Amino acid sequence: MSAPFEERSGVVPCGTPWGRWYQTLEEVFIEVQVPPGTRAKDVRCSLQSRHVALSVGGRDVLQGNLFDSTIADEGTWTLEDRKLIRIVLMKTNRDAGNCWTSLLENEYAADPWVQDQMQRKLTLERFQREAMITCTLNFYPCQNPGFDFSGAEISGNYSKGGPDFSSLEK
């Protein structure tokens, strides 16, 4: 079985003072560096549809309105190796045109180059998914390496998810 697209193609991280965030078509990942030895009982994390709040040891680390909506009851957080908090948010709008330009409404924006790379990656992820759906519907072997877009380069119209091919006749 092959690895998911984001594992094969890497991530496009946006660095922050507390760690980094990145996204796929479906999810937003937040990685927060915390003091080594942090325990789960030291962590307070609230995940709502449009709001996130994280404090560690009584100190606010991250708080504010998210750039776009998420599915609140599908959000999770984990403490890894007692030094990293990973928050996973499920996007409500899961198309390639929904590339978050910042994590919060007015904070932690991706610089223009990173934003461009994020949009390219989401567009390639969309093409990969559409190719997998097409091969499944047409009973092609879906593990065909010809459908692996993880190392592809994209140029041209990739903003807002790239061109829409859904109306083309077969």
UniProtKB/TrEMBL annotation:
Subcellular location(s) of the protein: Chromosome, Centromere, Kinetochore; Cytoplasm, Cytoskeleton, Microtubule organizing center, Centrosome; Cytoplasm, Cytoskeleton, Spindle pole
Identify the InterPro entries for this entry.
CS_dom (IPR007052), HSP20-like_chaperone (IPR008978), NudC_fam (IPR037898), p23_NUDCD2 (IPR037902)
Molecular functions (GO terms): unfolded protein binding
**Official protein name in the record:** NudC domain-containing protein 2
One GO cellular component, as annotated:
cytoplasm
Describe the task this protein carries out: May regulate the LIS1/dynein pathway by stabilizing LIS1 with Hsp90 chaperone.
For this UniProt record, the keywords arranged alphabetically read as follows:
Acetylation, Centromere, Chromosome, Cytoplasm, Cytoskeleton, Kinetochore, Phosphoprotein
Q: Name one Pfam family in it.
A: CS
Q: How does it assemble?
A: Interacts with LIS1.
Q: Which GO terms describe its biological process?
A: protein folding
The organism of origin for this protein: Odontophorus gujanensis (marbled wood quail)
Q: Using the record's annotation, list all stretches that form the CS domain.
A: 14-104
Report the superkingdom from the record.
Answer: Eukaryota
Family matches, as SUPFAM superfamilies: HSP20-like chaperones (SSF49764)
* PANTHER family noted in UniProt: NUCLEAR MOVEMENT PROTEIN NUDC (PTHR12356), NUDC DOMAIN-CONTAINING PROTEIN 2 (PTHR12356:SF18)
